Amino acid sequence: MTTASSSPSRRTDAAPGHGIDRSQPITITFGGQKYDAFAGDSLASALIAGGNLQTANSMYLDRPRGILAAGVEEPNGLVTVKARSEDDIDETMLPVTSVEATDGLEAFYVSGQGALDPTPDPALYDRKHMHADVLIVGAGPAGLAAARAALQGEARVVLIDKENRPGGSLLSSRTAQIDGTDGAQWAADTIAELSENPDFTYLSRTTAFGNYDSNYVIALQYRTDHLEPKHREGVSRQRVWHIRADQVVLAPGAMERPIVFSTNDRPGVMLAGAARTYTNRYGALPGQKIAVFTTNDSAYEAALDLHAAGAEIVALVDSREKASEAATAAAERTGAELSLSSAVIGTNASVMGDRLAAVSISELDADGALTGETRTVDADLLAVSGGFSPTVHLHTHRQGTTTWNTEIAGFVPNDDVTGEHCAGALTGDFSTQGALDTGTRAGAAALAAAAANAGFDPGSGSGDAKAPSAQVADEAPLCGAEVKPLWLVPSATGSTDDSFVDLQRDQAVSDIERAYGAGMTNIEHIKRYTSIGTANDQGKTSGVNAMAVLAHMIGEEDLGAVGVSGYRPPFTALPFAALAGRERGDLFDPARVTAIQPWHLEAGCEFEDVGQWKRPWFFAKDGEDMHQAVQRESKAVRDSVGYMDGTTLGKIEIRGQDAAEFVNRFYTNGFKLLKVGKGRYGVMCGVDGMIMDDGVTMRIADDRFLMTTTSSGAAAVFDWLEEWHQTEWPELDVTLTSVTEQYSTITVAGPKSRDVIAKVAPGLDVSNEAFAFMEFQDAELSNGVPARICRISFSGELSFEINVDAFYGLSAWKLVEEAGAEFDITPYGTETMHVLRAEKGLIIVGQDTDGTVTPDDAGLGWAVSTKKKHFIGKRSLEREDSQRPDRKQLVSVMSVDKKTVLPEGAQLIAKDADPTPKKGSVQDPVTPSNGQVHSYGFVTSSYMSPNLGRPFGLALIESGREREGEIMKSLVNGELVEVEIGPLCLFDPEGKRRDG
Amino acid sequence: MAENPTTLHTPEPPAVPLDEHRLTPAAHLAGDMEAATVTGARSVSLRELQFPLQIGLRGEIGSESAQLIEKELGFELPSRVGQVTGDPMGLHVLWLSPDDFLAVDVSTRQQPGDSDRYIDALAGKPGHAVELSANRTVLELVGAAARDVLAKSCHADLHPREFGVNTAITTNLGKVPIYLHRAGEDVWRIYPRQSFADFTVRWLLDGMKEFAQDEVL
């Protein structure tokens, strides 16, 4: 590393330097070399002040390139910025023009491709919502004027701007004065004045990157990179603002276009406006012998500013036939030769390096062909202006349309987005006074519209707002016939291989010619064929030029007829980390937990995600693995007693005179005659007759039911019930209330469960006679807590469910733990619950069903009433297809070797499936590579059962019930396994254990 | 200097007999909440209310059922979005939808049977009264910066011009569905369902952190 900049300083005091603080020197390290800079510099301006405008070579063609622009449109200079502190990581692919220089910053160029820093990003990113009556994008003269006009009465006004200070184009101006004050100062003063109103918000370093329906604008703010690096607990590095505005004023300005000519990519070819910005905003002169090549008057303003700052202007090359006033004045004052009807047709580097050393200038005839002698002029900078494109991106995000305006040679927005007001250069008016006028009008109109919509007092702002007045010497705005675009400068050699259109993609005119030659005439096709406009810069400097080259080839004069390639968000690249915000790690997604969670955590249980719920999966003891724990838990329930947290089951209270009728219409079985104090298992189908949910519903009173649903189906079932009630059966007197979260539910299952319940609820008669299966009782627990206890079984065992208000859940759980201690009561999780229910052939909706399974398919034909006239899905179940005998039916499957646990999802194929089929064989092969394999079905659930002493599973198999006893085959880990088909219920098929 | 936010919280009602057997869903984070209190100009603090009575009420406004409920309440049910009737520091009712309300009493701790009179009042009539005191917990975010903390994850417009004191809505805090009630100038009550309480508190504590630092504009 060298210790000082090897190049001479190009910093000049002859330019205003609106954007830098000369009293605050800083040092940056770029590419291993130190550069002196000032607070307020961009990396690009610091480098240019250090005499170095060459970037990394291009990515595809390895051609030397230099800084072209001064803003987000920069195609060449992409950098990696090293971590600023311990709270930061390296960041790459940032435009050198967009990074603010700060003391000690280290960065280097990358060639179109950066490497992501693999270290975890410790920085914070967050989000904030904001509501505005008027949102203004852009704090140049137009945006500031709009803010002044809009901030009246009770209006809430938000002004966002991507730069580090307000002023926009005023910062790039040498002479602009507003209302008698220096333009940059006026901008700062205006912000200070407006900020006294608490309902005004100004966000600097904030880029609006997306504009969505209803004026919903999303913006990225850089909050801390410019500050002294230190840890700020909880303070985000970047913030994504979600702004909902009644009215939006767009004042984003315009972007200058390069000109397409041979070797137009040499370091030292720079947009004229950018050269002016580096000079006036940063006091950094990008060249000393400067040639200017333009199609319009704006570049003369740059020529005069560069000249005033001490540069020599060596040539003025203008595409137009007649000298404009500005051209004549510039030629006079700079002493440079003015070449009209001319173009720069090539550039040369010196033998010493890659940078521009000379330009070749030729005259053009009336048809645009080269004519006359070519002359060469020495220059170290070529300032080019191909005209300006209004920054229509945010407008087109809203499907706003644009019109090609021949006067300015640019697309301007049409007034076709509701609640949007355009101002400043975006409208095609590039003068400072025009910006102030259109901004003031837009601000006042936005205020009036917002006040009318929201009904607030607009104060005095409802009248005519007076625009500030601009005085700008040498201003040369584009207007009228003074623009003569040069879309494609002929090459002296005839080759267009080095006439570049998209510098970041290294795509030249010859690439568009190739696309055209391949038959493409639509700009969207050209874009995809050539990749023009698809790089990191999203073609900000190349989009219009590519269209114009195409128009030239197809002989279309009107660029509007070629069509504009629409823009999508984001306007500029942004990190995914910013979009993720705080939703990372522990805060990634809400984990829903039950009141008993503290106990589960202490017990060291493993959790299973069920929807957003964390459910205890298994409780491993003493170094057990999952298999061992589940075997122990499963056996404990069957041999003695276990308890489980069943809180997550959905619960819906249904009340009304018609509650029984209502419930009856959903389930396939009958509920109208269900007695108070009893419950019934029910299956719920969609209109297609396929199982959508199941659960037990209890009748609490004549007009009150408590329906339980599956854990993951709770919200969907509630919506389903509400939808039918609200849209189809509003006449039924019924109200629904979700009470899922009101209760904690503890399942106590196993032969000893009755003894445990007797201790937990001493006042309750738990005998089979007094408390039968599918009944419930209200009881008081031994600690005085009121509970509802049900006899429900999902395991086939004698089983109870204790329901208490959720805040008592943990104490009730501990009560069960204490009462069960003498029976060695065992906590069990969802995996054991799955094993136990599968041994009984009880389904889990969503595991053993997939939306194509009827109740009969799932062995629940008994739960489908033949007497009911109607229930949802009945008509579909009567269709022939729903009754096909070869439908897939749920059965049990057991590996014949009694060892193999079939994987869930394993396919079942014919027993005689042939692993090595011969030609002409009628048998199915085993693998599809040998021909068509018929799958008869697949395994939906599979476990090792300690109670059956063998592995088993459930499977959906064609005509499964007819196949009981049949042997089929399944390919497991490359080995063929024999599988026996069995009855759905394998354990205690007579149901003797249910009553204990 | 702004008032210490902890003094603005709703006073804790006296304990009741069964309290020793129950826990609020975010009880395990009470210490974290206390420690996260920010004082000064950007003050903010978070607390969990202790078992306020919550009753779900259903009835069509103007119907006999609604009138029976109103008789028990002693005041009218709210009739439009955002409206809260009753005393925000005592018994009050949040509007949830045209026939769906939540009665809350923050001046008392719920006890078994507290909702019976509403249930009894509707006997034989349409509508519904449901004990929901354990269904959601009530978090209280208080202080000058409370609105800013909420704005980091609540997309509703909470500006005083649009969201006056004693307004309540159903909305989301990040990914958590909540009721949000502005009970006082700088007093915001947040109702997540109890299973979301742990996440919601951790989420809010995270959002509060920056207010203990110097303001970054």
Automatic annotation (TrEMBL), chain A:
<dbReference type="InterPro" id="IPR042204">
    <property type="entry name" value="2Fe-2S-bd_N"/>
</dbReference>
<keyword id="KW-0560">Oxidoreductase</keyword>
<dbReference type="GO" id="GO:0000166">
    <property type="term" value="F:nucleotide binding"/>
</dbReference>
<keyword id="KW-0547">Nucleotide-binding</keyword>
<dbReference type="GO" id="GO:0046653">
    <property type="term" value="P:tetrahydrofolate metabolic process"/>
</dbReference>
<keyword id="KW-0963">Cytoplasm</keyword>
<dbReference type="InterPro" id="IPR027266">
    <property type="entry name" value="TrmE/GcvT-like"/>
</dbReference>
<feature type="domain" description="Aminomethyltransferase C-terminal">
    <location>
        <begin position="889"/>
        <end position="988"/>
    </location>
</feature>
<dbReference type="Pfam" id="PF01571">
    <property type="entry name" value="GCV_T"/>
</dbReference>
<feature type="domain" description="FAD/NAD(P)-binding">
    <location>
        <begin position="133"/>
        <end position="403"/>
    </location>
</feature>
<feature type="domain" description="GCVT N-terminal">
    <location>
        <begin position="598"/>
        <end position="868"/>
    </location>
</feature>
<dbReference type="InterPro" id="IPR023753">
    <property type="entry name" value="FAD/NAD-binding_dom"/>
</dbReference>
<dbReference type="GO" id="GO:0008115">
    <property type="term" value="F:sarcosine oxidase activity"/>
</dbReference>
<dbReference type="InterPro" id="IPR028896">
    <property type="entry name" value="GcvT/YgfZ/DmdA"/>
</dbReference>
<dbReference type="InterPro" id="IPR013977">
    <property type="entry name" value="GcvT_C"/>
</dbReference>
<dbReference type="InterPro" id="IPR029043">
    <property type="entry name" value="GcvT/YgfZ_C"/>
</dbReference>
<dbReference type="Pfam" id="PF08669">
    <property type="entry name" value="GCV_T_C"/>
</dbReference>
<dbReference type="InterPro" id="IPR006277">
    <property type="entry name" value="Sarcosine_oxidase_asu"/>
</dbReference>
<feature type="domain" description="SoxA A3">
    <location>
        <begin position="498"/>
        <end position="582"/>
    </location>
</feature>
<dbReference type="InterPro" id="IPR036188">
    <property type="entry name" value="FAD/NAD-bd_sf"/>
</dbReference>
<keyword id="KW-0520">NAD</keyword>
<dbReference type="Pfam" id="PF17806">
    <property type="entry name" value="SO_alpha_A3"/>
</dbReference>
TrEMBL record, chain B:
<dbReference type="GO" id="GO:0008115">
    <property type="term" value="F:sarcosine oxidase activity"/>
</dbReference>
<dbReference type="InterPro" id="IPR027266">
    <property type="entry name" value="TrmE/GcvT-like"/>
</dbReference>
<keyword id="KW-0560">Oxidoreductase</keyword>
<dbReference type="Pfam" id="PF04268">
    <property type="entry name" value="SoxG"/>
</dbReference>
<dbReference type="InterPro" id="IPR007375">
    <property type="entry name" value="SoxG"/>
</dbReference>
<protein>
    <submittedName>
        <fullName>Sarcosine oxidase subunit gamma</fullName>
        <ecNumber>1.5.3.1</ecNumber>
    </submittedName>
</protein>
